[in-house]
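Priority: low. Protein: Coat F domain-containing protein. Input follows.
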Amino acid sequence: MQAITAKELEYIADSMSNEDLLIKQCAIGAATITNQQLRQACSHMVDVHTQHYNTLLSSLQQHQPLAPAQPQA
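Result:
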């Protein structure tokens, strides 16, 4: 396994931020929407985006041992 490049790390961080925002927005929808079907859809999307977030986090954790101990100049 190769170390993650700085560009890839930025992409993963941005993706995690996007997934976190989607989780929060869907959770608000699930809590406030009165239509039961839409509420269930929002709840399902919370689960989907949480899985995406956790997959990205796991990827970072797998590559952590390969990261340099000191910032590179």
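The chain has a mean pLDDT of 89. Residues 36-63 form the longest helix (28 residues).
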